[in-house]
């Protein structure tokens, strides 16, 4: 039986209900406030409606939470920090003067960084001598594609395999703080944009989109350089894409890494985790225990990093 999807209403809330070959009914609400339900294929539309209605209170509370977290139209999140966007050529004096970045918005030329942010320093470890590049593909929690993908709800599966040992890291190539990363990329970007405090001044939305991709590509490259010595494999291609449902994916056979453009909006500690996650797929093309044991040997707090994005 082919999967069928119908639209059901819960008051003013529209719920897309998909009838699938599943044992249990489930409701999911994404941060963009889309409400979707998966129900057994043999259920009637009436039963699906009753199931959705029985969770009305939870649905409304969850939607309210996401609406409160949603950014305003003139706001954007970069590396976990929210900025107010201001567009127009009238701000030309700001991006034509140096520096293009000032945390406090003061007129002095000294750059001030967040000293409370804990930088990522790679731990000492023995070389990775027993890892192999597995070619068997395993899907992530919400994916059915053959390539491995990362999302914020990945879980660790049990196995008796012995984990590979992380390799000795190279000297970190990426700046330690979000502000340093932003300042350095603004200095390298040849465009009409400046950041003063919590405000971003830019010529237009197209120019801002160009900078966002420029920032993402440079940051991801730096983080790959940082963690690649652990896996001792080659990355043959890096692509930054506007992904809708994933933070990243990896083709372990070809050495291709894909990372989401939206990832650059998230907390820097989470960005570190996603990059390491995808690089680890160059060794383990699955999400079994040895995969997460390998990550834990490099990044012991990876579970806490995953939790950083669960509410946004």
Summarize the model shown.
It contains eight helices and 13 strands.
Task: Report on the architecture of this protein.
This protein has 312 residues and is of the alpha/beta class. Helices cover 30% and strands 20% of the residues. The protein is built from eight helices and 13 strands. A five-stranded mixed beta sheet has the order 5-6-10-9-7. Helix 4 packs across helix 5 and helix 5 (205-231) packs across helix 6. The longest helix is centred in the C-terminal third of the chain and has 27 residues, at 205-231. The radius of gyration is 22 Å and the shape is globular. The protein starts with a strand and ends in a 5-residue tail after the last helix.
Strand-helix topology:
Layout: E1 4-10, E2 13-20, E3 26-29, E4 35-40, H1 45-53, H2 56-69, E5 75-78, E6 81-87, H3 92-95, E7 101-102, E8 148-150, H4 178-188, E9 193-196, E10 199-202, H5 205-231, E11 237-241, E12 248-251, E13 256-260, H6 268-280, H7 289-298, H8 302-307
Parallel strand pairs: 2-4, 6-10, 7-9, 11-13
Antiparallel strand pairs: 1-2, 3-4, 5-6, 8-12, 9-10, 12-13
Helix pairs in contact: 4-5, 5-6
Largest sheet: 5 strands, mixed
- The tally of beta strands, per DSSP, is 13
Uncertain segments: 105-148, 152-162, 170-174
- What is the first-to-last residue Cα distance? 36 Å
The portion of residues assigned to helices is: 25-40%
Number of helices: 8
Q: Tell me the β content.
A: 15-25%
Average pLDDT metric? 78
Helix and strand composition category? alpha/beta
**Oligomeric grouping of the chains:** single chain
User: What best-fitting shape do the alpha-carbon axes yield?
Assistant: globular
Give the H and E element order. Answer: EEEEHHEEHEEHEEHEEEHHH
Strand order of the largest sheet: 5-6-10-9-7
Rg result: 22 Å
């Amino acid at each position: 039986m082919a999967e069928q999807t119908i639209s059901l209403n819960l008051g003013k809330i529209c719920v897309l209900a998909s009838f699938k070959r599943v044992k249990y009914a489930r409701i999911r609400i994404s941060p963009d406030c889309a409400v979707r339900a998966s129900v057994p294929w043999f259920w009637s539309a009436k039963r699906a409606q009753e199931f959705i209605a029985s969770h009305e209170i939870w649905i409304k509370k969850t939607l309210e939470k996401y609406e409160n977290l949603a950014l305003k139209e003139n706001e954007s999140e970069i590396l976990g920090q929210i900025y107010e966007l201001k567009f127009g050529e009238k701000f030309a004096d700001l991006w034509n003067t140096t520096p293009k970045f000032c945390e406090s918005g003061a007129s002095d030329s000294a750059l001030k960084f967040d000293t409370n942010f804990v930088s990522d320093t790679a731990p000492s470890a023995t070389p990775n001598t027993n890892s192999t590049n597995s070619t068997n593909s395993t899907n992530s929690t919400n994916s059915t594609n053959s390539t491995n993908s990362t999302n914020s709800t990945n879980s660790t599966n049990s196995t008796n395999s012995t984990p590979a040992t992380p390799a000795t890291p190279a000297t970190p190539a990426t700046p330690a703080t979000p502000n340093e990363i932003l300042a350095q990329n603004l200095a390298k970007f040849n465009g009409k944009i400046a950041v003063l405090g919590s405000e971003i001044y830019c010529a237009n939305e197209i120019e801002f989109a160009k900078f966002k991709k420029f920032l993402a590509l440079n940051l991801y490259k730096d983080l790959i350089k940082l963690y690649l010595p652990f896996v001792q494999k080659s990355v043959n291609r890096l692509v930054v894409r506007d992904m809708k449902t994933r933070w990243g994916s990896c083709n372990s056979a070809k050495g291709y890494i894909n990372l989401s453009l939206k990832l650059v909006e998230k907390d820097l500690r989470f960005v570190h985790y996603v990059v390491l996650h995808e690089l680890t797929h160059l060794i383990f093309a699955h999400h079994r225990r040895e995969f997460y044991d390998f990550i834990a040997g490099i990044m012991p707090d990876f579970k806490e990093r995953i939790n950083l994005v669960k509410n946004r």
